[in-house]
Amino acid sequence: MIRFEHVTRRYPPGMEALADVSFSMEPGELALIGGHSGAGKSTLLKLIAAIEKPTAGTVLVNGQNVGVLKRAAIPYLRRNLGLVFQDQKLMFDRNAFENVMLPLSIAGFPPREAAKRVRAALDKVGLLAREKALPIALSGGEQQRLAIARAVVSRPAILLADEPTAHLDPDTARDVAEIFRDFHQVGVTLLIATYDDALFAEFASQRLTLNHGRLLA
Amino acid sequence: MNALVTQHGKALTWALRRLAAAPTNTLLSLLAIGIALALPATGQMLLGNALQFARSAGSAGATPQLSLFMALDADRKSTAAIDARLKSHAGVKEARFVPRSDTLQRMQADARLAEVIAALPGNPFPDAFVVTPSDNSPAAMEQLRDEFRRWPKVEHVQLDSAWVRRLDAMLRLARSGVALLTGLLGLGLVAIAFTTIRLQILTQRAEIEVSRLLGATDSFVRRPFYYFGTLQGLAGGAIAWLIVFGITALLQGPVAELAALYNTSTPEAKAGTSIALQALAASESMLLLALAGGLGWLGAALSLGQHLHRQA
Question: Is the pLDDT of residue B263 over 80?
């Protein structure tokens, strides 16, 4: 499903965010990426979504070499991925419903079916009652769950999450982890960058630890 | 197909909402565009009316004509031949024969001339034709003059083209003036669209970034801005149209007064000329709106090319 072959990502002047990283994930697998701050976790996720391009090596997603994708092809790759960003990137001038609607509008879903899907996704993360709320009116945990709802509303086969439980209190973090477990159980391939290994430990099949851009064995 | 229609609808709604979100800014931009376009549009309106006036004045008797004088020794037969030739000529709209006896009578009616004429041995006036050409452009008239000159027993062809040339040159000058003004102020419109779209892009930066990350294509991201630019241009064009309409209405009174003065001074004009200032014709109005919308679109395109290019 996801395969890294000797991937290096270098930022000028000569800073290596990732160095010679190789690993692979099977469909339906849940993998964790751990490591200190600045170890290259976010960079690794960005390479999968073609937000960044590898300096060397090959990133394969579904057998597709995403490092050489043409600019015009990148949107279609991203529509098959669910992305949960570290800073969430919610639209603060739109309510919860509209935020979750955005990926479906972009993909050109018929509005009526899209609305059903949006409500299903909001229901999944327990925010159905708050669909009219602006993100600013939501708690930290609710905002995180809203970001997850937006990531899964188009039912992607792959879900990438960057620190989804950071800044959350332990109880809320556990709730969020359970949402991810549910997706894992229905066969979604999950790659989660986190400090909090213990939260996901019981269902993670693979644990990648980065140290200054290198994968520890 | 359906999805595309929905997306266009969304982009259009977004653009309308953005225009409504900052009414003062929108109004000022629209005024700037409207006034910029109103100048050449007013020029076009005045030019159209000047043409109309020149034409109607022409039909009242001031149409350029050629006078064709026969030789004094021309007999009836050759005069009749010329008459027939003129009447069957494609470039001649109308030819009126003025017999030499009529001219003599008319001149004798003037007491001062009568004495002079009486002192002369015979009728000093030749037979003449007054020719109205079907095409009254200076070039066509000169061609006719040169042709008539070569006909037998034609002594002289007089062409009254000076004022035609002057009118023609003036209209050409006015037309280039309007074109120049349109070009310059059109450029201004593109600049206005460029800047307002740039501001819109800046305020929407976060949304654009998120949309891209969620799989938005370039055209999805750009579409609303194209609508914004085009709508802004169209609305500015509509304001320009209203301004021209207002100017027309305001000038109606003074023009009518002026027209009244002209009508009393020349009796022929009274019959043929009625001057009322016309607003822009339907085709001109459409052109104005199309130009305004098109230039707004162009400003958006340039701005998007400049400000969206580098984003991932």
Answer: no
The contacts of residue A199 (CB under 8 Å, 6+ apart) are A165, A173, A174, A177
A188 residue type, one letter: V
Taking domain B65-160, whether its CATH number is 3.40.50.300 is answered by: no
Interface ipTM: 0.90
Nearest CA in chain B to A93: B207
The overall longest dimension of chain B from CA atoms, in Å, is 106
Q: How far is CA B232 from the centre of its chain?
A: 26
pLDDT of residue B161: 60
* Spatial separation of the C-alpha atoms in residues B306 and B312, rounded to whole Å: 14
pLDDT at A31 over 80: yes
Out of A71, A102, A111, the one facing B6 most closely (by C-beta) is A111
Distances (CA, A) of A177 to A100, A163, A201, B99, B287: 20, 11, 10, 113, 61
Q: Which amino acid is at B166?
A: R
Paired with A191 in beta bridges are A31, A160
Q: Tell me what pLDDT residue B274 has.
A: 53
C-beta of residue A162 within 8 angstroms of C-beta of residue A191: no
What's the average model confidence in pLDDT over A90-111? 92
- Mean pLDDT, residues B84-88: 87
CB A106 within 8 A of CB A184: no
Confidence of residue B306 (pLDDT cuts 50, 70, 90): confident
Using an 8 Å CB-CB cutoff, list chain B residues near A77: 215
Domain residue limits, chain B: 2-61+165-311, 65-160
| Candidate from B76-80, B120-124, B204-208, B300-304 with smallest mean pLDDT | B120-124
State how far the alpha carbon of B124 is from the alpha carbons of A119, B102, B104, B154, B158, in Å.
106, 12, 8, 16, 18
pLDDT computed for residue B300 by the predictor: 93
Q: In the prediction, which pLDDT does B86 show?
A: 87
Torsion angle of the four alpha carbons A198, A208, A64, B305, in this order, in degrees rounded to the nearest 10: 80
With a cut of 60, say whether residue A192 has pLDDT above it.
yes
Token reading at A150: 């937006």
Least confident of A100-114, B4-18, B271-285: B271-285
The shortest C-alpha distance from B189 to chain A (Å) reads 30
Interface probe for B, chosen from A51, A102, A113, A152 (most Cβ of B below 10 Å), is: A102
